[in-house]
User: What shape does this take?
Amino acid sequence: MGDLTKTCPDNYYPKGFIMHDQEHISVAQHMCPEFFRWIHEDLKPWVKTGITKEMVERARKPATFRLVILNGRAYVEKYKKTIQTRDVFTIWGILQLLRRYPGKVPDLDLMFDCLDYPVIQKKDYHQLDSTLAPPPLFRYCSDDYSWDIVFPDWSFWGWAEINIKPWEPLLKDLDLGNKRTKWIDREPNAYWKGPWVAKHRKDLLKCNLSETQDWNARLYVQDWNHEAQEGFKQSHLANQCTHRFKIYIEGSAWSVSEKYILACDSMTLLVTPNYYDFFTRGLMPVQHYWPVKMDDKCRSIKFAVEWGNNHKQKVNEIGRAASNFIQEDLKMDNVYDYMFHLLSRYSRLMKYKPTVPQNAVELCSETMACTSEGLAKQFMEESTVKGPADVSPCIMQPPYDPQTLKFIHDRKMNSIKEVEKWEKDYYEKINQL
Assistant: This one.
């Protein structure tokens, strides 16, 4: 993480930092996007018990680092190395939140794991009102069997190792990439490009075009070592919006690629996922994406493309709904607001006043940027919050009631079952010919 022995300046905001007149900051009247309501569900295990210091420290073993925020300043105790610079850019993002909403982020103490797989299993904590509540642990994704708390991933502030820009400039590039090729003029096939990393991705490659079979898929293996040597010339995400359909399939767990794929105006063919991140629970099948069966990928993809090319207006609508969701509901303002509301509500559940851990180091934007180099330094400079927001955070909606949660679940399942029926009828008709 670089040299963390440097101390942060007494004046947290450096020369040139734009301080707005607090009396003229407007109060946001807009509601937060609907998916923010899942914050309530993610913190549900601790509503009755609260969060004690003992609970937090039980999450130390799997954690990459511990973060304490006191009086608007951040202190980090690092426990282990993680993949690439995930921890660096996650902490960087939190520091930018403190700059965006100075004095508004409450004191807190949390553990963060930068690896992929959720580890706090629900089966180990059946009684949420018992004295043995699960340890709160933040990470980038979770699943229906875990209590890990989902948080925006590091790549929103840039992924230096593979030259993916911070989210704000990248969103603009993706929007321009969409306009470069109209949907109707795109290749009428399904596109995927990525590294193998998992068995089901290797299995997906069986759906590629061959001499004997065309599953309507055009699939490419991403060799990051080769791409790095070539300067990532073939990996610009905005140049990959050239097919009418794009495939999303998880990697080792969830994949950061989902937001890039959904942003493309192309209809996303989403292979049955096992994991979710902080925003994907707000997506609806046949509204934002087309569901593809994990255990019958090739036939499912072939049908999706055939159906889509015969229902062009509907497919165009689905693609646009997804890219609008990404451009509007997932714009950087909302990413910061999600972080703000999640951390604020987490802080309210704490039953103790946090203190700075003995081995923690205070971090701030100045020391982190100064000790970085290359693309990491460039991306930090590009994603630095230049001054406090001139609006308040969006307004959170109340928790879902059980009936609404059931309605959401049933709506998703019914949409998926409907697509499966269409697919079944399609292949039965072909077999009769």
Remarks:
- Confidence is low (pLDDT under 50) at residues 1-6.
- Residues 165-329+408-432 form a domain with the Rossmann fold fold (CATH 3.40.50).
- The radius of gyration is 22 Å.
- The chain has two domains: 22-160+333-399, 165-329+408-432.
